[in-house]
Amino acid sequence: MTPPAKRPPQISASILNADFAQLGSEVRRATEGGVDSIHLDVMDGHFVPNISLGPVVVEAVRADSTLPFHSHLMISEPLRYVEAFANAGSDLIVFHIEAHGDPHELVERIHRAGCSAGLALNPETAGETAHPYMDEIDLLLVMTVRPGFGGQEFLVEVLPKLRALRAEAERRNLDLPIGVDGGVKEDTIGAAYGSGGDVMVVGSGLYRGPGDLRPIVDELREAAHSGAGSAIDQAAARS
To answer: Per the residue annotation, which of 41, 44, 138, 233 is the catalytic one?
Structure first.
């Protein structure tokens, strides 16, 4: 069978790097800037050392965009909060394979709640751990930083795992979006896209300052298509 055609890069705006004092307007700014989705990082101070936002915040900014909301649960007990984030307006709920709970049960629960289900892998987690769930999930999210804080540097050593996961999806003829989350900027997005990612979670590479985000979004898309990247990213992508 012919593998699914490569998708154009999608830009998902990570509001972790936005101005939290004006979160609604920051969501609107990303929406007006032409991104494809809004990425909301949920942290519990246990699974990761930081604490961010909960379902009340998701619900509060839901009216500020018609784009899909991706709630990324970096929490130890995701099963407890599926319905809360679904009811708050999430379209996609992402949980970590390293968190507590049976991934099959979590995927089923998320789907029953009316949302798409995503599975995230930390940088040190082997890609093969996702193989049993790739037929069930709607997004596979590969972390290219250690989760918990925005603004970290892109871990190029994760690129071989990303390429292997894309190859596995193609081998099984799965039309599975693969996201890349962490350190995605103009000089790394080319390597991420070229290695098999197609949903690019961008935080500090998007929210660089005030003003219109559309030129930045256009630059990111162009860099992804052109394969633009630093020398180390290019070398890692070829390894």
So the answer is: 41
